[in-house]
Design goal:
It comes from Dethiobacter alkaliphilus AHT 1. With about 375 residues, the chain is an alpha/beta fold. Helix content is about 45%, strand content about 20%. The protein contains 16 helices and 15 strands.
């Protein structure tokens, strides 16, 4: 029988909540179709359980977040509802018994256990829905591409920046799928080529995590740490087409300065365009969003701007997402033995060339023959 005790920490934005979680907490979220990156962040915090007021798997498309929690053996309930979410306070001591949740003697609600059987069934449903979702996604992309074509036709006003892109390599880092592994894989490239480092929102924290200071941060500034904002050499806030830029409030509260760019699409689109328009020789990208599942997990129903931007910058773009999976060195035990023997051959040859050593080997051989008699 499942029985879990722990303090609750809740938040409607999982990516912000994870910064407050510590090992042993019960994460209370409201996250429809839990995505893989959010689940990995929860796993990294070593939470005891995840309780989702929303549905972690609706079956609309194959989202891999619940499977990540299951693989980490983290107990997971969903569909608790908005009323439950409002009842729970931060640091409330919760008790989870099977599918029920209590605060002391007070019963708070009952949810759906997200186990291996449920995940398998919902993934089957999602696969069946994928064709319909793809049709809708493509149509949405085409419709919005007509409205956002200024991104590719060059009518977008881009500010001059202090960051010098001319004839340089640029590495754009987004905190997306496999960003840690891919950053690790390109460390030699960063250290040798020394590209301009651009962090898209939380991508700036990813760079800091690996010991690099972002030259430029682009984003709406909702998923980046204060530390990264203060350390970055230049900031660009992605604003809405009507000029509103909520991220500027945070910039001003930290007594920092930033430039704004009014544009449709995503912040990573803007990062690519800035590098391209100001003369980057090559643009490498890590953790970017480039397929239907990526965009559905971000709550977007199409990818018009990204489609257009990649058409424009494609001749200079190298998408390094997943580069860590291209080659994984595997040295077998047999290979290690052969390498050891090969390394020992020069040492043996040098030893045998020494008269004293040859004499010792001769005495050992004589001793062995005597023992054999």
């Amino acid at each position: 029988m499942t029985r879990i005790f722990g303090p609750a920490k809740k938040g409607k934005k999982t990516k912000k909540l994870v910064d407050e979680l510590v090992a042993g907490d019960i994460a209370v979220i409201a996250h429809r179709d839990l995505d893989e990156l959010a689940a990995e962040s929860l796993c990294a915090r070593k939470v005891k359980a995840v309780i989702n007021a929303d549905s972690s798997m609706t079956g609309r498309y194959p989202n891999n977040g619940p499977a990540k929690l299951a693989a980490a053996k983290i107990f997971h309930l969903d569909q608790l509802g908005e009323e439950f979410f409002e009842k729970v306070g931060d640091n409330d001591r919760l008790t989870v018994r099977e599918d029920g949740i209590w605060r002391g003697s007070e019963f708070l609600g009952r949810g759906r256990v997200v186990d291996a059987a449920l995940i398998k069934e919902q993934m089957r449903v999602a696969e069946e829905n994928l064709t319909q979702m793809l049709d809708s996604f493509v149509q949405n992309t085409l419709d919005y591409a007509l409205k956002e074509k200024e991104l590719i036709l060059g009518n977008l006003e881009l500010p001059r920046l202090k960051t010098d892109f001319a004839d340089r390599h640029v590495l754009v880092v987004v905190r997306g799928q496999s960003y840690r592994e891919d950053l690790e894989a390109v460390k030699h490239y960063i250290d040798e080529v020394r590209p301009v480092l651009v962090g898209v929102d939380g991508g700036a924290d990813a760079l800091l995590e690996y010991g690099y200071t972002p030259d430029l941060v682009v984003g709406d500034m909702d998923s980046i740490s204060d530390q990264a904002l203060k350390k970055a050499r230049e900031l660009v806030v992605h604003a809405y087409r009507d000029g509103r830029a909520p991220g500027m409030e945070r910039i001003r509260s930290l007594d920092l300065a930033a430039t704004t760019v009014q544009a449709p699409g995503t912040s990573e689109d803007i990062a690519f365009l800035l590098a391209y328009e100001w003369g980057a020789k090559l643009i490498a990208a890590i953790g970017t969003h480039s397929n239907m599942i990526d965009f559905l997990e971000k709550g977007r129903k199409g990818m018009a701007s990204t489609f257009l931007v990649r058409l424009k910058v494609g001749n200079r773009l190298v998408d390094a997402r997943g580069v860590s999976q291209l080659y994984r060195s595997r040295v077998s035990g047999r290979s290690l033995v052969l390498l050891t023997l090969a390394a020992g051959i020069p040492a043996v040859a040098l030893a045998l060339a020494n008269p004293t050593v040859r004499h010792i080997f001769g005495l050992i051989a004589m001793r062995l023959r005597l023992v054999g008699l």
